[in-house]
Amino acid sequence: MPMSTLVRQVALEHPFQDQKPGTSGLRKSTRQFATPHYLESFVEAALRVVPGIEGGTLVVGGDGRHGNREAIGVISRMAAAHGVARLITTTGGILSTPAASHLIRSRGAVAGIILSASHNPGGPDGDFGVKVNGANGGPAPESVTDAIYAVTTSLDGYRILDGDPISLDHPGEHCLGEMAVTVLDGVEDYVTLMQGLFDFDRIGALLRGNFRLAFDAMHAVTGPYATRLFEGLLGAPAGTVRNGVPLEDFGGGHPDPNLTYAHELAALLLESDVYDFGAACDGDGDRNMILGRRCFVNPSDSLAVLTANATLAPGYSGGLAGVARSMPTSAAADVVARALGIPCFETPTGWKFFGNLLDAGRITLCGEESFGTGSNHIREKDGLWAVLFWLQILAVRGCPVSTVIGEHWHTYGRHYYSRHDYEAIASDAAHGLYDRVKGMLPSLGGSRFAGRTIATADDFAYTDPVDGSLTSGQGLRLLLDDGSRVVLRLSGTGTQGATLRVYLESFVAPGGDLAQDPQQALGALITAIDDLAEIRQRTGMERPTVIT
Ligand code: VG1
Ligand code: CO
Q1: What is the homologous superfamily of the domain 190-412 according to CATH?
Q2: Which of 39, 368, 372, 522 has a Cα-to-Cα distance from 173 of 20 to 30 A?
Q3: Rounded distance between C-alpha atoms, residue 179 and residue 366, angstroms
Q4: pLDDT digits over 41-99, tens only?
Q5: Under a CB-based contact definition with an 8 Å cutoff, are residues 393 and 279 in contact?
Q6: Which pLDDT does position 22 carry in this prediction?
Q7: Domain 414-547, what architecture?
Q8: Which positions of the chain have pLDDT values less than 50?
Q9: Please, which residues have CB within 8 angstroms of residue 51's CB and are 6 or more apart in sequence?
């Protein structure tokens, strides 16, 4: 039967008006995604906008949350109807965001569709998401996501192939209409990539010795990857990987690797002396939290430490072209870059802004304060890569995490840093607060704040050094005359109400007091921003929901 007879054109009564991608793709409640034609509408728009779809290769997979397999079925049938030549997906549909980025690149795909709401909870009452990545393996740039959104607002229908979805139970080759479908093991290629970057013999010797590692996969996508890496190839004892089986609702948890949501792991490391190293990743495997014995590594410091120690890893032994950090990330990496004599870029929040710099070879490492670190090996942040990088550094230096961090501060100074999140506040209250401070910015320069003077007050805008594109409205900054700063942003990944993020930073040079508690060191800034922005009063919250 000719393929055209199998393609069904489905008419939409009304186009959806709420499919604007946020910081990281389209993220909505699972319930909303279950609305008839909702997923299909967004996928149709993406398949129409992304160049090279007809006759191209497409990678599809996800973090295993509720709806993952069904969505892969729908996307496969739509891809076939749009003339995709080959679809690559994985057993069980399990594919971490970094592994997807690698597959897109290594298989020459024109794009990837990653099914994940990242660190947001999953399940029927949780969230679902769709991320569209381009041929470079990275999140589609704003020009593409804006175009996809524009198509969704006037869409009158979509094309889909009738038929049964292919089985994801085993690796194999299938056909869907005229489209070839490859189901492969989603872990293998990624593991090979890691073996090329790090010294597995050396890390293996560490993990087979007295050094004790605890890794928490949070019942999300990294379980199979971490088990193969740590307990398989690197010889760590069984049980090293906790919560290693991906579950559709992440076991009811919130797969966000921070001190609040990964508190069991945090308690193991911070309140006992059993483990030397602890790490966790988020729902889709692109975030990482690093813990040493009685030592929490702030993600901004983590980027700085990796930058300073990069040449200890075989994959980076030749040195770094440059580094980049998102604007709200502390300037700890900047100080290291200056010492190394390499450029350091400051981009808006979201991994898509690193893509051009990586593609142009201007940076090798990059990171965000939100537990994201990565490099030019792919075009997404990479949780397990960061864990392996830390293990590589510890294996070579032969000292505990706390020593690595302490020595780092003694050399470069310490950026006291904290992020305060006020989650799920009423949208009106959040926007009212934000717009009020934004309106005050022009009059804030030169005024007193937390015993310092405000040198600059602005709304961060970024001109991409590679393509010249301008992105504005990326966060309200109060830059103080002693190098401290406070930044306010509204989250672009939440699905309930609005989330206000307050980023606080203060620098102490080597020789100063490097051993304070961050909340105390930042105390004056915390009080001053609460007064200025009327945070407690306007949110009705006595304290943040998450403090990092
Ligand atoms: C958050 C983080 C940001 C990160 C984004 C996606 O965005 O702050 O740094 O890039 O999540 O991470 P927002 O807009 O909520 O602050 V993930 O792990 O969802 O791909
Ligand atoms: Co993520």
Answers
A1: Alpha-D-Glucose-1,6-Bisphosphate, subunit A, domain 3 (3.40.120.10)
A2: 39
A3: 37
A4: 999 999 999 999 999 999 999 999 999 999 999 999 999 999 999 999 999 999 999 99
A5: no
A6: 87
A7: 2-Layer Sandwich (3.30)
A8: 1-4
A9: 110
